[in-house]
Design brief:
It is a single chain. By secondary structure, this protein is mainly alpha-helical. The chain has one domain: Arc Repressor Mutant, subunit A. The protein contains six helices and two strands; from the N terminus they run H-H-H-H-E-E-H-H. The protein has a two-stranded antiparallel ribbon with strand order 1-2. Helix 1 runs antiparallel to helix 5.
Length: 150
C-alpha cells in the first residue's frame, strides 16, 4: 500500500486555504462597518432595485426564507432596511434599503474591491480570467448556485 497523499497535494486544500483567508479578511472589514458578510449580501441584493419580497431574496441567494427573515430583522434593527406591508396580502411584505443602507452599500463594495485587489491584484488579466473561468466551471458542473455568505 502506498503512502496517502499529503494535504497539500489536493487542489481542495489550496482552494480552502485561499477561500478562508479571503473570506475572513473581508468579514473583519465589513464587521468594522457594523454588518456581517451575510447582511452585506442582502444589502447588495437590495441595492438599486424596488422593494423586494423576502421569498424573492431567498430564491436569489439560496438562503432559506427563515434565514432571510432573521437577516432582515437584524438589518431593520440597524436602520439599514425598511419593511413595507403589502396592500394586497396582509401576510406579505417587502424589503428596501433605507437612506443609511443605500449609503453603506457603496462603502462596503469598496471594501470588497480592495479585498479582491489585495488577494488577486498580482494576477495579470489572463491569469485572473483563467482562474475565474475555472472556478465558475467547477461551480456550474457541481450545481453550486448558493451565494456564499459565511
Amino acid at each position: 500500500m502506498s503512502d496517502p497523499a499529503q494535504l497539500t497535494d489536493h487542489l481542495g486544500y489550496w482552494l480552502r486555504q485561499v477561500s478562508n483567508h479571503v473570506s475572513h479578511a473581508f468579514a473583519l472589514q465589513v464587521e468594522e462597518c457594523g454588518v456581517t458578510v451575510a447582511e452585506w449580501v442582502l444589502l447588495r441584493k437590495l441595492w438599486g432595485r424596488d422593494a423586494t419580497g423576502p421569498s424573492r431574496l431567498a430564491e436569489e441567494t439560496g438562503l432559506t426564507r427563515g434565514a432571510v427573515s432573521k437577516l432582515a430583522d437584524r438589518l431593520l434593527a440597524k436602520g439599514l432596511i425598511e419593511r413595507t406591508p403589502s396592500t394586497e396580502d396582509r401576510r406579505a411584505h417587502s424589503l428596501a434599503l433605507t437612506a443609511a443602507g443605500a449609503a453603506l452599500v457603496p462603502r462596503l463594495a469598496q471594501l470588497a474591491d480592495r479585498n479582491e485587489e489585495h488577494f488577486f491584484g498580482h494576477l495579470d488579466r489572463g491569469e485572473r480570467l483563467m482562474l475565474e473561468q475555472a472556478l465558475r466551471g467547477i461551480a456550474q458542473r457541481a450545481g453550486m448556485r448558493l451565494v456564499p455568505v459565511e
